[in-house]
Predict the structure of Type I cytokine receptor cytokine-binding domain-containing protein.
Amino acid sequence: MKDMFCLYWTWTAIQSNENCTLWYKTEISSIGHKGPAGKTTYLHYAKSLDNRVNLNENITLKMNTLCDNRTSDVKTFTSSLTSGNPRTMVRNMTCIWDYKEYVNCTWRPGEDTPPNVNYILRYWIADGDSCPPRVNKQSTLFRDLLDGGELCQNYTSYSGNTFGCLFRVDPRMEFKKFLAVVMDRSQNIRPYIYFIPCINSIAKLKAPVIHLKRTPNNTVLVQWNVSDTSEYDLEYNILSNTDKQTEKVAASNKEFFNILPDVQFAIKVRVALAQRRICSASPDDPVKKFLWSEWSEIKTLPAVTGGRITLIVILLLVSLVIIVATILLLINMRRLLILICPRIPDPGKVISRDFPQWLQYGKPVYNEPKKEEVSLVSLLDTQPSSSQVEQDLKWKQ
């Protein structure tokens, strides 16, 4: 188990009188999966099995002999890593690594699992990529290998049935292989093998903590804090009255523009380990390349409606005053124009309008006063002066 399932096949060389070098062409496969083919000149074949081969199914080795351009018939050998009824294996097993803390594995009982099964989980962590040389290798039953590894102690149960286990791992286990086996102590069920070639593929970060604040020019600044790592991808979801979208960003903050104060702004974010932190895995690996964290708590900036309502009321009042003033001005414009610029009467029009009335009704040209006013005139006799008398005499002469 230290080398993550290094399986060794051995066979006996055929007796041949041909003067050529024998080659053995091999191919390992299981139900629904096929591993890479290879060629060897040794009388054994070693293959480090990974997730490209379903370790919970029978393993098949196909082999034929090559001699120059001639090929023998294909021989097929089938071997099972474990024994027991496949319907007793646990189902839907999955493990999640709460980044740099715990690994949480869960499963469901098999279809034909006997009652009161006492499940146990053992796990291994390794970073080897190849099998060691086969030197004095002794045959070992796979079941005997399961006694090694670390035994999980913190199991999760419900109604007497165990369906999960939680265990702490070394934070420095990044980029390593991870293998777990679920079985029972009494060996009544068939063991289930869970293998991940890179544990970063099941890493899950903590939900980030976000902060919001409004800045000038109708801008909202969103900041978040990720405590697990500085290398992550972020996804946000805006939950507002008018917008809902999802994007990926790679920063610790983001500005959202054109967010009016009277519009409510709500957002939540989640993070995942950056793609460059996910080590390479087989394209047939059913595990996702990354896991998103839980969504953060939704943060909301409420709409600021008071100032806008006041502005709208003021605009309506000003518009109403202007409309009323315009109507009054139009009504009194003629009178106002006469007061400002009085018109000069046209004599011709006045005579042509009034003269027929004078002739028809005998209207005098002038208005005779209703009361005659008499003013008293007094004559005063004065004594002529000497100069005046002399002058009168001159005129008489």
About this structure: The helical segments are 142-145, 306-331, 333-340, 347-361, 386-396. Residues 6-79 form a domain with the Immunoglobulin-like fold (CATH 2.60.40.10). The chain has three domains: 6-79, 86-202, 205-306. The two ends are 177 Å apart (CA to CA).
